[in-house]
Amino acid sequence: MTELALYIHIPFCRCRCHYCSFVSTAGRMAEMPAYVCALIGEINLRRRTGALVKTIYFGGGTPSLLSASQVGEILAAVRANYAVAEGAEITLEANPGTIDKEYLQNLRQGGINRLSLGVQSLDGGELEFLGRQHGTAEALAAVCQARAAGFDNLSLDFIYGLPGRSIRKWRVMLREIIALGAEHLSLYALTVEEGTMLAELARCGAMALPDPDATAREYEVACRVLAQAGYQQYEISNWARQGYSSRHNMTYWTGGEYLGLGCGAHSFGGGVRYAATENLDAYLVALGAGCLSELTEEVLTPRLALSEAMMLGLRLNSGVAVDDIRTRFGIDLHECFKTEIKELVALGLLESDNRHLKLTLQGRLLGNEVFLRFMPP
Amino acid sequence: MDQKNIRNFCIIAHIDHGKSTLADRLIEMTGALRPEEMSEQVMDSMELERERGITIKAKAIRLNYRRADGEGFLLNLIDTPGHVDFSYEVSRTLAACEGAVLVVDATQGIQAQTLANVYLAMEHNLEIIPVLNKVDLPGAEIDRVMAEVKSVLGYGEEAVLKISAKTGFGVSGLLEAVVARIPEPKGAPERPLRALIFDSHYDRYRGVIAYLRVIDGTIRRGDRLRLMAAGTEMEVLEAGFFNPKECPVDELGTGEVGYVATGLKQVGDCPVGDTVTASARSAETALPGYRPAKPMVFAGIYPTQANDYQELREAMEKLKLNDASLTYEPENSPLMGHGFRCGFLGLLHMDIVYERLEREFGLSLVVTAPGVRYLITKTGGERITVINPSELPEPSEIAIMEEPWVKVSIISPAAFIGPIMELVRASGGNHRNTHFLGIAVGTEGAQRVQLDYDMPLRTILTTFYDQLKSRSRGYASLDYEFEGYRETRLVKIDVLVNDEMVDAFSRIVPPAEVQEVGRALVHKLKEVIPRQLFAVPIQAAVGGRIVARMDIAAKRKDVLAKCYGGDITRKRKLLEKQKEGKKKMKNIGRVEVPKEAFLSLLKTDF
Question: Is-above-0.90 flag for pTM?
Answer without folding.
Answer: no
